[in-house]
Structure formats: C-alpha cells, structure tokens
Write a structure and sequence with these properties.
The chain is α+β, with helices and mostly antiparallel strands. It is built from 13 helices and 21 strands. Helix 1 runs antiparallel to helix 2, helix 2 runs antiparallel to helix 5 and helix 10 packs across helix 11. The structure holds inosinic acid.
C-alpha cells in the first residue's frame, strides 16, 4: 500500500481544488470520486446519500462503475455494509462470501473483490457514505481508511457549501438543500429513480395507486442479466417496480398474449438464475388483489370510499410502533408495567404495541361515553379498570390525543388510584387542536388538524378495520356535519 500512500497527498490537492471550484456540485463530486479511486488504485468509487428515513442509499456520484452495476438495485442501508450506519469504517475483503454485501452476484459480474466504505458525517450524524471498490482482493490499511475518511469529510464540506451556495443564490427561505434534492425520497419514491415518463400508462397508474397507499416504490431500479456470451451480457430483464417495504419486484403485464408469453419465458429464466428473488407478474386485476392481500384497500376498489388519502401505511405504523415498544421496553426494565387503554379506538395500537414490548406486563381497559344531546357533553366512565393499579407503573395507551380533554379526565381518574408512576403513550398527536396541555411521554406521529380514521379509529362507527390511517374526505364531514 506504500505506493498508494504516496499518491494520497497528491490526490488531496486535486480533491481540495475540485471541492473549492465553482463547477456544478454533481461534477465536483464525480471528480472527487475519480481522484479517490485513482489515488487508491481502486476500480471505482461511489458517493452515496441516505434518504431522510435512513433506509435507502442513493448513489449521487461515481467513478469506474458500469451502468449495470450502478443500476443493480435499491441499496438498503441496513443490508449493505450496515455498520457504516453506526458511523463505523467498514472493509469487506471478499464480497462474494461476506453477508454484509447486499448484491454479491452483481459485484461478481463487475469483478469487484473488496469494498471499503466510510461514513459521511454532517454534525455528527451519518448522512451518507463514500465507498471504493477493488478488483484485486485487498486488506485495506490504516492509511487507506484514514485517506477515505478524510475524503468523506471533504465531501461533507462540499455538500454543505453546495447548500449554502444554493441558499445564497435563491436569496430566500429555500430550505430544500442541494443535498436533500439529491438524496430525498420525496413524499414516497426515491426522486433519483422516479421516472420522468413511464414505459406504459398502466405503470403510471400502478405508481399512482402505490402513492395513494403510501407504499414506497422504485421504478426499474435494477436490471438482471439473463444470458451471456463470452462474459458479455446479451439479455437482461428489468422488472417494472421494486417495493422495498415488501422486498418485492413487480412486472406488470399488458393484455397482449404474445408479450405475456415472452415475459413468462424471461421470468422463468430469472427465477432459475436468481432463486432468492421475490418477483410477481401482475395484470391489473392481480395487482388490486395483491394490494388487498397486503391489507391495502378493499377488494376491487381503486380507493377506499370516503378516504381522501392515506396518512400512514400499515408498514409505517408497524415500524413506528416497534420503535416505541423498544423505548418502552428499555425504560420500564425492572418495573411493574400495566398498560391501560380506552376502548375502542385503541384496540389495534394496543395489540401491536404490547406484542412488541419485551417485558412482563399487565393490560387493562376502560370505556367511557359522552353524554351529549343539547346539554354540555359530559364524559362518564362506563367500564372501570378490572384490577387495582395502586403501586404499579401505569402507561396510559391512547389512539389519538385531540383537545386533550378525554386524556386529562382519565389521567385525573387514574392518579387518584395511587399508581407508582403514570405516563402516556399515544399513537397520534393532533397537537394543533390541543385545549388542555396534557403531558405526552411517547408519541407515534404528530398529525395535522384533520379527521383521521382506520387502525381502530372510527367515524360514526365505520372504518375501524382499515389497516392504515387515512384522512377522511372533507366533503364527507361537511355533508354529515361531523366533527
Ligand atoms: P380529545 O378528548 O379531544 O383529545 O379526543 C380524544 C378522542 O376523540 C379520541 O380518543 C378519539 O376517540 C376521538 N378523536 C379525536 N380526533 C379524532 C380523529 O381524527 N379521528 C377519530 N377519532 C378522533
């Protein structure tokens, strides 16, 4: 590696010069990737940014890597060199044998043996990565790791500079930074992979349907080689969509039988070559069925009647609930935990939350009713707790806190029974409508001032069984004079 070290100080000069140039950011980053790969005598280098959810990595600049390799598929930050997410420098000696490589077969085709990856840090937070790839198996030295880490620091400063420049140029409260623009997964799909046009109208319709249900998708993110001639790929298959949450590729079919036959042939070959791949060939009816199977929508409909849009998909709710349960499990170790819920809206959330808390616990429910009519509404307990909570650590579990009046009443009631502690976990917080300032210790999602239904929440007794949380169409509320 000594000869590499000699090249490093030379490379720093070029990299610093590029970083300080007035060229467009993309060109600067590509130039840094090139200087880095050359200095390290590596086959290639890439600069990747995490999406805001820190789940996927998008390649924003690269050198020395084939288009096929760059389009090999969605890079899952938890499956591809996952230690980097923790801020660690990660070296893979043999990509074909190492479980930390997400696409070993694509690396094989590219003849990549070793990878070195370092985190890209901004204000101590991992926002991306810089990676180098070698053809020869390589034990990266300390000097290699130091060099690449310093390159990552320069890239981070370059990105900051790009942001600052953009802000100055825009001259107003432009908050969408160059970094975000490059890496963001806007609303749902990855912007870098959102196509400007689709190959077929049915694909566009399918993308809209996925957007409606807040299912993340990537359009044609990966091509799979199907046939080779003397090491050259002569046939490839590019599935239309990849749904990262379901780890599922989808190929849409048109109704033309000749095309279906050809696609079926390719699909059989694909499955034979890549048996671990989860891929489905769908026509329109099939994909509506598929969505229904995964709990999105009612069978046959493009939308659920009365729902304006989905705010949180089933997967998003599950992820958030698991994270909350993890924190609760950590905070309540060694204590006598009792979860208390108010029927009925909380049933879905309570069921999922308690299954993910890894501690012994008890569960109890209360029910309350509102007496309205023309008089002032007065909340009344119609079902009290079955067992005493005196001396126990009570966690009040709520579906939604709106004005805070219900929770305030229930908390007063519970504290009069002398629990050892009393805290609140709510899935949704409609903070904009708060009248009584109740303390919330664990919050799933903050939501805008909209009436939401699904996942236990109802509107006049309906919609509780939807697996997602959606905003009720405003016309419906006005029509019926609802809340
Ligand atoms: P609060 O007393 O105003 O905080 O209201 C809390 C209760 O009102 C919740 O437990 C729900 O039953 C109901 N609620 C408030 N907002 C919504 C909504 O957007 N959808 C469904 N129920 C709601």
């Amino acid at each position: 590696m000594d000869d590499r070290q000699n090249g490093y100080s030379q490379a720093f000069k070029q990299i610093a010069k590029a970083a300080n140039s007035s060229s467009p950011l993309k060109r600067v980053l590509n130039s840094i990737a090139k200087s880095t790969a050359k200095a390290m005598k590596a086959a290639g280098c890439s600069i990747l940014l995490l999406n805001p959810q820190k789940e996927h990595l998008n390649i924003i600049a690269a050198y020395g890597l084939s288009d096929l390799y760059l389009r090999k598929g969605a890079l899952n930050a938890h499956r591809s060199l996952p230690d980097i997410l923790e801020g660690k420098v990660t070296a893979i000696f043999d990509v074909s044998q190492d479980k930390r490589a997400q696409y070993p077969e694509a690396a094989g085709i590219e003849k990549i043996s070793s990878i070195l990856g370092v985190p890209l840090l901004q204000m101590g937070e991992v926002v991306g990565e810089v990676r180098v790839y070698t053809h020869e198996p390589c034990h990266f030295s300390h000097a290699d790791k130091d060099f690449l880490s310093t390159v990552a620091n320069i890239v981070a400063i370059t990105l900051e500079k790009g942001e600052l420049y953009q802000e100055l140029k825009a001259g107003h409260e432009e908050t969408v930074t160059e970094r975000r623009k490059l890496a963001e997964t806007p609303k749902l799909p990855s912007s870098s992979l959102r196509p400007s046009s689709f190959g077929h109208p049915s694909e566009e319709e399918f993308a809209r349907l996925l957007d409606f249900y807040r299912i993340e998708w990537l359009y044609e993110p990966r091509s799979f080689p199907l046939a080779w001639q003397e090491n050259r790929v002569v046939e490839m298959f590019t599935p239309d969509f990849y749904l990262p949450e379901l780890d599922l590729y989808i190929e849409l079919t048109t109704l033309k039988q000749s095309l279906i036959t050809e696609k079926n042939r390719k699909l059989r070959r694909l499955k034979a070559l890549y048996p671990e791949l989860n891929i489905k060939l769908l026509n329109k009816k099939d994909y509506l069925r598929l969505l229904a199977k995964y709990g999105y929508g009612r069978l046959g409909g493009r939308k659920v009647a009365g729902i304006d849009r989905v705010l949180f998909s089933h997967t998003q709710i599950q992820r958030r609930t698991t994270a909350l349960a993890k924190r609760i499990s950590h905070n309540y170790v060694g204590r006598q935990l009792v979860l208390v819920g108010i029927l009925k809206g909380v049933v879905c959330f309570m069921a999922d939350l308690m299954q993910n808390i890894s501690l012994p616990l008890a569960v109890d429910f209360m029910a309350i009713s509102y007496y309205g009519g023309n008089a002032e509404p007065a909340v009344k307990i119609t079902k009290d707790l079955d067992t005493s909570i005196a001396g126990l650590d009570v966690l009040m579990v709520e579906d939604i806190v709106d004005t805070g009046m219900t929770l305030n009443y229930v908390l007063n009631h519970l504290s009069s029974h002398n629990p050892a502690s009393l805290q609140v976990c709510t899935l949704l917080d409609k903070r904009a409508r708060r009248l009584i300032d109740v303390p919330l210790d664990y919050v799933g999602f903050e939501i805008p001032d909209e009436f939401v239904v699904g996942y236990g929440l109802d509107y006049h007794g309906e919609y509780r069984n939807l697996p997602f949380i959606g905003a009720l169409a405003p016309e419906l509320i006005e029509e019926e004079g609802g809340k």
